[in-house]
Amino acid sequence: MACNRNCGLLSGAIIGAVLAIFGGILIPVGDHIIGKAIEKDAVIVNGTTAYENWIVPGSAVYRQIWIFNVQNPSEVLERGARPKLEQRGPYTYEVRYLPKENITENSDGTISYMLPNAARFIPDMSVGTENDTFTCLNLAVVAAPALYTNTFIQLLLNTWIKSSKSSMLQNRTVKELLWGYKDPFLNKIPFPVDPVLGVFYPYNGTSDGLYKVYTGTEDITKTAIIESYKNKRNLSFWEGYCDLVNGTDGSSFPPFVKKNQVLRFFSSDICRSIYGVFHSKQKEKGIPLYRFIVPREAFAAPVEVEDNYCFCTEKVLSQNCTLGGLLDISACKGGRPVYISLPHFLHASESVLHEVEGLNPDEEEHETYLDIEPTTGFTLRFAKRLQVNLLVKPAPKIEALSKVNKSYVFPILWLNETAVIGDEKAEMFRKKVTGPIYFLNVLQLSLLIAGSVLFLAFMGSYFACRSKKLK
Fold first, then answer.
1. What mean pLDDT comes out for the span 103-125?
2. Helix (H) or strand (E) holding 287
3. Stretch 305-314: mean pLDDT, rounded?
4. Does position 273 have pLDDT exceeding 90, yes or no?
5. What phi and psi values does residue 340 have, to the nearest 5 degrees?
6. What is the mean pLDDT of residues 82-98?
7. By the 8 A CB rule, do 113 and 98 touch?
């Protein structure tokens, strides 16, 4: 009788040990199986989940725009006063809704494509219509002295500016400022020049690229990383490593993302590669995500972050490269003095913010982030936030700018380009990715706990019975 009982207890302990061991074995084995399945479906090859997600975003991408309205135009024009600005918006457009074009699978493990540019106005997500009018910077007049530094040419420009009755400021509708208008000053210039001007002009009907990216078939760690942009590995805008095209386009990254990684991605909007660092864990529609943010160091002055030396191209305005928070992309914009910053000059030097009134930088509202599903590397939610500014500088020979006392950066607008995974795609993600991983983790944990508890309980009972018998 005692033997039967002891044998039963030992059998129970052995079963518990086997379950615990199986649960332990299941951790590396299960992870390996899932890893292999993810690798197979994460490569950018026709028929995979990654390819379907890559051809056209499964979620709507919206570009919200806030325009800075000048509230004291007469003081700015007559006395050179600091502009008082008030943001108005959002004016919302859906972008990136067209599938990639000219897709070519190459023999070297890469795939090439063009990214079509298209934007359509979404009235229900906007504060007004595209015909709302603003008092804003005159793009052509302000850019003129940067494009033409010769004194004689500036005297000629002054004649055409005066005859067109243009000034440093102008009144424009949302549609004109963003997508293009025929500028009266440029229209007066007697030699060939495109008189149409706009912050995003030309946009609709154009394409960005050619992009060439790794598919991941030969090396999974290179999935979606850009091999070349416009058939080049560099941009010809910056010096040194700053000129390289690094990382992906931001819509996805190689699978199995870790918190300690630096995620690099290229943005043609700002004519440079940039990076994100881990910030926090997030969750969207039941899917665990890693949030990576673009840190303040990315736009810091070289005196603070030495690696940023090659992004400093203008020594006067930057006070010999000691000011932070601004990126001069004039070389990328045909010489026009365009400066990129974070909205409301977030993380910029105090003196940059001091040149205008009405800005209120706020990290939560104005920082750029990407929320990435770490197993697949897909970006399931993001907010790309940028501000477009123009350099205003003294030009004594141009009457419209004669009241400008010193060079400063004038904000025109800021944008927030966002997307969140849709319900249908989220359901697919839960079934194919997070669901199996969650089930496997629960199974592993359950077997470990149940097996350990059974083993300890039965072994405890066995030794308790043995001790009673010895007495």
1. 95
2. strand 287-293
3. 89
4. yes
5. -105, 140
6. 95
7. no
Contact 227, 213 (CB under 8 A): yes
Taking CA atoms, 271 is separated from 28, 59, 201, 254, 276, in Å, by: 43, 25, 16, 23, 16
Residue 353 near residue 346 (C-beta atoms within 8 A): no
Nearest Cα neighbor of 27 from 418, 371, 451, 461 is 451
Ranges assigned E (strand) in 320-469: 327-328, 338-341, 369-372, 379-392, 408-420
pLDDT in tens, 169-225: 999 999 999 999 999 999 998 888 889 999 999 999 999 989 999 999 999 899 999
Please work out, in degrees rounded to the nearest 5, the angle formed at the alpha carbon of residue 217 by the alpha carbons of 213 and 223.
Answer: 40
Going by C-beta distance under 8 Å and a sequence separation of 6 or more, which residues neighbour residue 87? 66, 67, 68, 69, 358, 414
Which amino acid appears at position 424 of this protein? E
Residue type, 135: T
pLDDT of 451 reads 47
- The length of the chain is 471
Peptide bond into 210 cis (omega under 30): yes
Amino acid at 368: T
Tokens 């009405």 sit on residue: 358
Nearest to 62 by CA among 30, 110, 94: 94
Confidence (pLDDT) at 321: 83
Q: What's 116-167 look like in SS3?
A: ECCEEECHHHCCCCCCCEEEEECHHHHHHHHHCCCHHHHHHHHHHHHHCCCC
CB-count exposure of residue 211 (10 Å: 0-12, 13-18, 19+): buried
